Amino acid sequence: MKNGKEKLYWPPAVTVDAVIFTIQENDLKVLLIERTSEPFVGYCALPGGFLVKNEPSKNAIERILKDKVGIKGVYTEQLYTFDNLNRDPRGHILTVTYFALVRASALKIKSDEREHPRLYAVKKLPRLAFDHKQIIEYALERLCAKLEYTNVIYSLLPLEFTMPQLQKTYEIILGKKLDKRNFIKKFLSLNVVRQTSKKLSGPRRRPAQLYRFISQKPVELKKFF
């Protein structure tokens, strides 16, 4: 009681949603499922679900990635909490969002005849439920920013890669061309990759040097890329 007036606190329901990015067919793609119940039945949506009792959001997103998508042990990062009062027609439901980065070879999408999980190009999204288009756009902004000061792009590349493959991945995500000579010189100066003893042979090209990231864990760069 305060000043003779009682304050009412109405706890909202809480969900978690995952923006799962990967590179496939020279395109940045996101994993979506098809909603099978109202609201927005038939619309595509991000994989997600409600928190269960006493469950931290980090545990919930790991559970959902494993149960709904069939992936675990990938790079995830909490993105933002979307809490617009009108974002869900069922009532006051906020969502704690995460984004995940998965190399294409590690993405084994579980077959589901109801939700039909599949990859969509970020540039050509279908109609989306709730505010999921806004969430994907926000996640892409975060990813582009992370590329400037961390090594997280390792999560989207094969364990061994060429410099042209690395540059192409940056260009796909950033949506712009990069100067080849400047890119290689600047990236090698960051000291986050090392040469391997292998080269990649092509039918019409000289063998290209293969590289690996020194760390397969997120680290901040000593200087902005």
From TrEMBL:
CDD domains: NUDIX_NadM_like (cd18873). Coiled coil: none annotated. Residues 154-213 form the NrtR DNA-binding winged helix domain. InterPro entries: NUDIX_hydrolase-like_dom_sf, NUDIX_hydrolase_dom, WH-like_DNA-bd_sf, WH_DNA-bd_sf, WHD_NrtR. Residues 18-137 form the Nudix hydrolase domain. PANTHER family: ADP-RIBOSE PYROPHOSPHATASE, SLR1690 PROTEIN. This is Uncharacterized protein. The lineage of its organism: Bacteria, Candidatus Harrisoniibacteriota.
